[in-house]
Amino acid sequence: MNEREFIYEIAEIIEAEPESLSLASDFREKADFWSSLVGFALLTFIEERCGMVLSVDDFMACVTIGDLHAKTRR
User: Fold this and answer.
1) How high is the pLDDT of residue 9?
2) Domain spans, the chain
3) Is the CATH number of domain 3-71 1.10.1200.10?
4) For the segment 20-72, what is each residue's pLDDT rounded down to a tens digit?
5) Is 23 within 8 Å of 39 (Cβ atoms)?
6) For residues 71 and 5, is the Cβ–Cβ distance under 8 A?
7) Using CA atoms, how far apart are residues 17 and 72, in angstroms rounded to an integer?
8) Angstrom distances, CA of residue 29 to CA of 24, 57, 60
9) Which residues contact 66 (CB under 8 A, 6 or more apart)?
10) Which residues are within 8 A (CB) of 30 and not within 5 positions of it... i.e. 6 or more apart?
11) Is 32 exposed, middle or buried (0-12, 13-18, 19+ CB in 10 A)?
12) C-alpha–C-alpha distance, residues 47 and 6, integer Å
């Protein structure tokens, strides 16, 4: 999945405008409402759509959308 597609998918999950996001965006700060359910939705997206299993510790270490995207590129 390319960077733009990844950002659009993240935007849908966190309920943000994709045009306001970049790989440098802090996905927790950009979320209209952050909760553990949003975090779980992101983890599920990464597993199901990107084919990567990300541990909670690895997820918590991510700050930006780029951090998440990099985890899917391994």
Assistant:
1) 97
2) 3-71
3) yes
4) 999 999 999 999 899 999 999 999 999 999 999 999 999 999 999 999 999 99
5) no
6) no
7) 22
8) 12, 19, 14
9) 22, 23, 24
10) 14, 16, 20, 21
11) exposed
12) 13
For residue 60, the model assigns a pLDDT of 95
pLDDT-derived band at 73, boundaries 50, 70, 90: confident
Q: Are 65 and 23 in contact (CB under 8 A)?
A: yes
Rg of the chain (C-alpha set)? 11
**∠ CA 63-66-69, rounded to 5°:** 110
pTM beyond cutoff 0.90: yes
